[in-house]
Specification:
By secondary structure, this protein is α+β, with helices and mostly antiparallel strands. Helices cover 16% and strands 35% of the residues. It is built from five helices and 16 strands.
C-alpha cells in the first residue's frame, strides 16, 4: 500500500521584528494568532503560530522572529513562495486590501489560475489564489469576514537543486499525484482540501541563505502518532535519513533533508493547540513547555511584548 500525505501541515519562516510580524499576519492578512510560545532550541526567541480559528493543520504559518536579524536570500533549497487560498470571488477584496496597506501587488497566471503576488514586511514571497475547495475560516477580524478570509494554505512553490529528484520524492515517497507541467513549473496534488498543491520551479536559482525573509522548513501531515511512526520507517526505507521523533507540544515531528536541499518535516495532526489553553483564549498567553516553566520569569524579561491589534488601511 502506497503511503500518501493529506498535504501541508505547516510552514515555518524566519522574520525580523515580532510586532511587525503580528501586525502583518494578524492585522493585515486576518489570520488568528493561535499560539504564542518560544523556539524550543532558543527560548529567548518567540515561536508564533498563525492559522484559522483553531490552527487546523493545513492553515498554520509559523515564525521565528528575530529583531535585527540579517536578511536572508530566497533561493535553491527553500520554499520560494508560500500560497494562501481564499474563497472564490475574493481576489478583488484582497487586492484592494493589500494596496490599502501599501503592499505592492503583482499578478501571475499559473495552471489556469490567477495569483496575487506580494511580499511580507521582511521579504517573504507570498501569493493568494481563490479556489472553491476547502472549508472557510470561521475567524473574523475587522473587515476580514469568512466571506473573504484566508482558508489556509493553497500550497507552495519549491526551489530545488534537483527538481526531478524532488518531484520523484513528492510522487513516490509522499504519495502526491503529478498534475503536469506548464512552462517552468511541475505541479503535484495531494488528496487533502487545504495545502494540497505543490509546484516545483524548474529554473535554477542562486543557493538560498537562511535569514529574515526566508522559509526554514515545510511540514507535511501525518494522521496520528501511529501513522507518524509509519512515516519514519517509510522515509528511511526510501533512502532518506529521518530524525528521531521530536515532541513539539502541539504535534510530534520528524525531519529529513531531501535531495534538492529542502528541509522537510512530517508532523502529526494531534494533539493540536487547545491542549494547553481553551479555544476562546488561543494565543493570548505565553505558553512554555513544561521543562521551561522554571525559567518563565527570565524568558519573559527577554522577550519583546507583542500585541494583536486591528489595523486600518492607509488608502
Amino acid at each position: 500500500m502506497t503511503k500518501a500525505t493529506e498535504g501541508i501541515h505547516h510552514i515555518t519562516a524566519i522574520v525580523g521584528d515580532p510586532q511587525e510580524n503580528v501586525d502583518f499576519y494578524a492585522g493585515v492578512l486576518g489570520l488568528r494568532l493561535v499560539k504564542k510560545t518560544v523556539n524550543f532550541d532558543d527560548p529567548g526567541t518567540y515561536h508564533l503560530y498563525f492559522g484559522n480559528e483553531n490552527g487546523q493543520p493545513g492553515t498554520i504559518m509559523t515564525f521565528f522572529p528575530w529583531a535585527g536579524a540579517h536578511q536572508g536570500r530566497i533561493g535553491t533549497g527553500q520554499v520560494g513562495t508560500t500560497t494562501f487560498v481564499v474563497p472564490e470571488n475574493a481576489l478583488g477584496f484582497w487586492e484592494e486590501r493589500l494596496l490599502a496597506f501599501n503592499v505592492s501587488v503583482n499578478k501571475e497566471t499559473r495552471f489556469g489560475e490567477e495569483f496575487l503576488l506580494f511580499d511580507d514586511p521582511h521579504g517573504l514571497h507570498l501569493e493568494i489564489v481563490a479556489r472553491e475547495g476547502g472549508p472557510k475560516s470561521r475567524w473574523e477580524t475587522g473587515d476580514v469576514t469568512p466571506e473573504f478570509a484566508i482558508k489556509g494554505f493553497g500550497g507552495a512553490i519549491l526551489n530545488t537543486a534537483a527538481p526531478y529528484k524532488t518531484a520523484d520524492l513528492l510522487e513516490n515517497v509522499l504519495g502526491m499525484e503529478k498534475v503536469g507541467q506548464q512552462g517552468d513549473y511541475l505541479r503535484f496534488r495531494s488528496y487533502g482540501e487545504l495545502g494540497n498543491i505543490i509546484d516545483i520551479q524548474l529554473t535554477a536559482s542562486p543557493r538560498g541563505e537562511l535569514g529574515a525573509g526566508t522559509i526554514h522548513h515545510i511540514a507535511f501531515r501525518a494522521k496520528d502518532f501511529e501513522d507518524h511512526k509509519d512515516w519514519q520507517t517509510h522515509i528511511a526505507n526510501k533512502g532518506f535519513f529521518p530524525t528521531d521523533v521530536k515532541d513539539r507540544d502541539y504535534f510530534d515531528a520528524i525531519y529529513f533533508r531531501e535531495h534538492g536541499g529542502l528541509l522537510f518535516e512530517i508532523a502529526t495532526d494531534p494533539p493540536g493547540f487547545t491542549r494547553d489553553e481553551p479555544f476562546e483564549a488561543l494565543g493570548e498567553k505565553l505558553k512554555l513547555p513544561q521543562w521551561l516553566e522554571t525559567h518563565r520569569s527570565r524568558i519573559e524579561e527577554v522577550l519583546t511584548p507583542i500585541t494583536v491589534r486591528e489595523r486600518k488601511g492607509e488608502q
